[in-house]
Amino acid sequence: MPENDRAFNYDLDYRNLNLREQPELYRVGRGEMGVLLVQPYKSEILPYWRFKTPEIASESSEKIYQLFLEYKEKRDFIGMDMARKFLQMGYTRSRRYANHRTGQKYDGPVPDEQKGRSGAHGRDQLPRNEDPVKAKSARIFYGKYLQAREDEQYKKLKKEWQQTYG
What we know:
Shape: globular
Organism: Spirosoma flavum
Helix content: 40-55%
Number of helices: 5
Pfam family, one: DUF4385
Order of helices and strands: HHHHH
Structural class: mainly alpha
Number of domains: 1
InterPro entries: DUF4385 (IPR025494)
Protein name: DUF4385 domain-containing protein
Number of strands: 0
Region (Disordered): 98-135
């Protein structure tokens, strides 16, 4: 795989790391990788991450996007990337609840050896039943996610980051 596509490093001791102080350890990864691990950003963004109703999703996505802009002002790429990941996760989780009332996508428990990994792991996918309220929450987060992802300074800093740190 190309150097700038290196996966997020799940082997680090994130409970005891402050990646603002040790930014060289951060890896972008793909999608939402590491969104619930990287401190201090997780603690700064997570309290605002909500999607139960469109009103809550709108308020949440606006606040997280505002944090994205504050990190941008400071040229804090990790903060920008983490805010982008939370916006993406707002979309994907809202979408999951829009498709599956309980949020459970697959039938049956996750096998012990597969816990902590994504995917079906041989389980059948449960039928979808569209919830228009959650679907609206998903669209709200998706719009803010796209704003962050397509931000020109974010894209520039991401490219610089990947060239410098891999």
